[in-house]
């Protein structure tokens, strides 16, 4: 009788093992006794605020009520299975993972207006809407200013003719623009400010006013004297040329510097130290010579 009883018990154990091929016998017995499997879910608010960051759910059942985090300047979009992308989890979503896991809050930045100071330049409009947690370089217009080259938008006014390397929050390659956990790690210089780049992200630390930075345009002058003698120098666009070289030639008197088309025109005006040039990148000038009395 005892042998038969042991035989029935052995057969029962084998049947349990075949009935639960993916679980241990202990787990199978536990589920049969409890009728459920408890799973701990950790909630990552991703920069937001939560009163609690863990909750207990039941495998195979719905998640039930999910807490709503808060974050200044952002709208909460929901809970997701991955930090970037993944499946959205709602109260009705079934718990399909039978082990402890994590859910991530996803955010969308609210729009805010920033002011643009062209610093002597011209703009069609001096305000633009940008969004927290998003790149905003391409939303910024390009101002114009006669005789100046636009260097970019900066967080401080700075000075003309400077092009400092600033620091602002930079995107480190995240595919999700709602994720602004990109590290800056640099020291910001209040004197030079931060230049807005293609990877700059607008966040809570960003200022509400940006300043255009300019550099004076330069014009390259190439001056041809006599034979292979020539000079090269730079002058500032929109300002007097300043001192120009005075070449010499035996038997001739130097008569000034002229543009190519004006060289043979006796009424043409020479380019002098007081001449103001603009709208060009380069100019070639030629020395005019007059024979001295002894050469006539």
TrEMBL record:
Q: Where in the cell is it found?
A: Cell envelope
Any GO CC annotation of this UniProt entry: cell envelope
Q: Where is the composition biased (Low complexity)?
A: 159-187
Q: Where is this region: Disordered?
A: 159-196
Keyword hit for Signal: yes
Is Zinc-finger there in the keyword field?
Answer: no
- InterPro entries cross-referenced by the UniProt entry: InlB-like_B-rpt, Listeria/Bacterioides_rpt_sf
Q: What is its main location?
A: other
According to the lineage, what is the superkingdom? Bacteria
Record's keyword terms, sorted: Signal
**Signal sequence segment:** 1-26
The protein's name is: InlB B-repeat-containing protein
